Amino acid sequence: MENQTTVTEFILLGLSSDPQMQILLFLVFFVIYLITLVGNIIIMLVIRADSHLHTPMYFLLFHLSFVDICYSSVTVPKMLVNFLAEHKTISVHGCIAQMFFILFTAGAEVFILSAMAYDRYAAICDPLRYMEIMSKAICVLLVSGAWTIGFFHALLNTVFTFELHFCGPRQISHFSCELPHIIQLSCTETFTNQVVLLTSIVIFGTSSFLLTLVSYIHIVSAILKIHSAEGRRKTFSTCSSHLIVVGLWYLTGFFQYTKPSSLSSVLLDEMLSLQYSILTPMFNSIIYSLKNKEVKRALRKMLGKWIFLK
Questions:
Q1: Which structural domain range is residue 179 located in?
Q2: How many CB atoms lie within 10 A of CB 148?
Q3: In whole angstroms, what is the distance from residue 148 CA to residue 155 CA?
Q4: For residues 73 and 278, is the Cβ–Cβ distance under 8 A?
Q5: In-domain check, residue 47
Q6: Does a structural domain hold residue 1?
Q7: Do residues 182 and 161 touch, judged by C-beta distance below 8 A?
Q8: To 10 degrees, the CA torsion angle through 28, 34, 36, 41?
Q9: In CATH, what number is assigned to the domain containing residue 302?
Q10: Domain for residue 121, yes or no?
């Protein structure tokens, strides 16, 4: 170990080494990032401006939009800079910091999605007690709990990452500093880090997934008991947007972190990461804008007022 040089910087290889392709990718992901920011900010402004949307469901949607902005902003700006930079480096501490915020915001998003599933369960399965079950205090507790769990999930993994020593190689075959890629570059034993990562995913990931799954089992059961097809359609429409978002997130995120090493490849890892860390935050705003009638109505109302004032 004494003869090995300590690495102080990593090189993020990104999605392509072709200069022309990098310019194209910069434009593509710049547009995606703008859509993510603008779409989620609009949802937050609409919810804040329209009193009809001051309900538990939209309170949670407001925080989902906020965490999507944070989640996307952890990786995309650095990715955009690297598309145009000659030296695509990031310090070891900067890489670990990015990893921490990826885990933090991803953990918060998972549990906010679970809270939204519980909200839909309360609205559909126990509508008479809905406002009691989803009181303002409960909503604040659910959101605070999501951020707190996300923080401790990130902190737990980050503490053990600081125990690793890096002496080469220094190239990360990815566009961001995700934990599995950092572990692979360590010159020291990583068994503890792998156990901590797997344990945290099992505990935090499985608990959020089970909460969402149980909520939807009850929701589907309640919908099937509705006699009219139109009634079933209307009831299902109140949670269809959330179900699409949850499906996008869990299918890609869980597979990325739990797939066997025999299935790992640079291309597959990048495609999965792009889906849950960059595309899903954009899709969330689009899905909730296009499929949610209340959001569309409030947006038209807000735009109408803005045009009238102009």
A1: 9-309
A2: 13
A3: 10
A4: no
A5: yes
A6: no
A7: yes
A8: -170
A9: 1.20.1070.10
A10: yes
CA nearest to 78, candidates 14, 150, 172:
14
Provide the strand spans (E) within 124-222. 171-172
Query: CA 139 to CA 142: how far, in whole Å?
Result: 5
Tell the residue number behind the tokens 């993020």, with chain if given: 12
CA–CA distance, 234 with 134 (Å, rounded to integer)? 21
Can you give the pLDDT at residue 259? 63
Those residues of the chain that have pLDDT short of 70 are: 1-4, 253-265, 290-291, 304-310
Q: What is the pLDDT of residue 122?
A: 94
Number of domains comprising the chain: 1
105-114 pLDDT per residue, tens: 999 999 999 9
| Continuous segment of H or E residues that includes residue 138 | helix 136-161
Decide if 15 contacts 175 (C-beta within 8 A).
Answer: yes
pLDDT value of residue 104: 96
Output the six-digit token pair for 143.
């959101």
Is 3 inside any structural domain? no
> Which of 224, 222, 205 has the alpha carbon at shortest distance from 113?
205
